[in-house]
Amino acid sequence: MRRTKAEAEETRQAILAAAELVFFKKGVANSSLDEVAAAASVTRGAIYWHFSSKVDLFLGLYESVSLPEADLLDLGDPDLSGSDLFARLEQACCSWLALLSRDEQRQRIMTITLRTNYSDEFAPVLRAQEELDSRHKSLLKSVFERLELAGAFNENWTATSAFGAIYWLIKGMCSDWLLFGKRFDLAQEGAVAINRLLRSFKRYPTV
To answer: Is 90 exposed, middle or buried (0-12, 13-18, 19+ CB in 10 A)?
Structure first.
């Protein structure tokens, strides 16, 4: 029985790996389960044993990698404030860009999701993305709210506006990098952009 379960899981992982490559090359809508089966060296029936449909397979692929790692957004000590909290926030943001820049599987899966036209058929995958995005936004927003309560922002920024700026900076950089040929150093140039934006948020002591 143990061997059977192990073999079934091996087959499932082979199907996911094949789907990742086929979907990345052709797009989800233009790919067939027959093509995935051929790439995985399994039968179409084997795919249906593990996944009820192409949508279910797409969802399984999306859920196979956390995007991004939730622990990167865990900013640790709730007593951190001011410059220390800004530094921890910068570290978390830069760590995410560095992780993406070196992880080719994450790059492929994120590219697949960015290229997909989310019609009614793929609505379950879109909902899964929205739920994950909502959780990550909530974690990040709580940090900006702590900074605002501590009086860490200058008069140009609020928790809401600062959160929006950093969120769209990171999302825009990642999308541009993935969709248009990785034309810049995501980790290095992204870290510089994040540092400059965070510095613009801060209230500095008057002399």
So the answer is: middle
Full DSSP string of 179-200: HTT--S-HHHHHHHHHHHHHHH
Q: Quick one: 205 exposed, middle or buried, by C-beta within 10 A (0-12, 13-18, 19+)? A: exposed
CA distance 113 to 109: 6
Tens-place pLDDT, residues 58-95: 999 988 876 555 555 565 566 666 778 898 889 989 99
Q: Convert the pLDDT of each residue in 16-67 to its tens digit.
A: 999 999 999 999 989 999 999 999 999 999 999 999 999 999 999 988 876 5
Say which residue the tokens 């990785």 belong to.
Answer: 182
- Nearest partner of 61 among 70, 50, 72, 71, judged by Cα: 50
Residue 29 has a CB neighbour count (10 Å cut-off) of 13
CB-hemisphere CA count at 13 Å for 18?
24
pLDDT above 70 coverage of the chain, percent = 89
Tell me how far apart the alpha carbons of residues 186 and 182 are, in angstroms, rounded to a whole number.
Answer: 8
Report the distance separating Cα 106 and Cα 122, nearest Å: 20
Do the Cβ atoms of 162 and 203 come closer than 8 Å?
Answer: no
Q: CA 164, 169, 174, 177: dihedral to nearest 10 degrees?
A: 150
